[in-house]
Amino acid sequence: MKVVPEVLIVPTGTANIASVAAAFRRLGASPTICDAPAGIESATHVMLPGVGAFAASMQRLAAAGFDEALKRRIDADRPTIAICVGHQLLFATSDESPGTRGLGIVDAHVGGFPAGVAVPQFGWNEIEAGDDALLLEPGYAYFANSYRATGAPGWRVAMADHGGPFVAAMQRSNVIGCQFHPELSGAYGEALLSRFLGLR
Length: 200
Prior knowledge:
This protein is of the alpha/beta class. 26% of the residues lie in helices and 32% in strands. Helix 1 (17-26) links the parallel strand 1 (6-9) and strand 2 (30-33).
């Protein structure tokens, strides 16, 4: 009997949940929207999406009690993927929202792009991943971001370049962060989500 992977999507209040859910359905998974913190810790797979501002997304998580549940889940090394602003929320702080603390899973800062480059970064960019990058692979993915991290201590990283190298994606055991949008990245993004679900 075929097992249908279940994915719990954590709403940040600013994410395009419809496109994320559609990407998982194309893979044969069953996505649902989280409505209580307890579900975050018990779900087999969790996605933290985000589109918009760091502070607004973090405030939404905290108001619902999702922030502490996410920390406990990630501390327990349960399969979790965070994308775009969701990826940035894994960090401690961001130039976008001075004074707002992120989840602090990654002890590092999210900064802005240097002067002289197009901001936001919109479009496809090349990702370089080393042989030790686990589920992360080289290829091209779609980005839409005004801020980025340049390092993720303790994580395996795949890098891209836009006015200098930045963290395109990172992985620590069963937890993945993606600055790009896998749901908008064609075959490359689909393959990553499939690997996350254990389908490849």
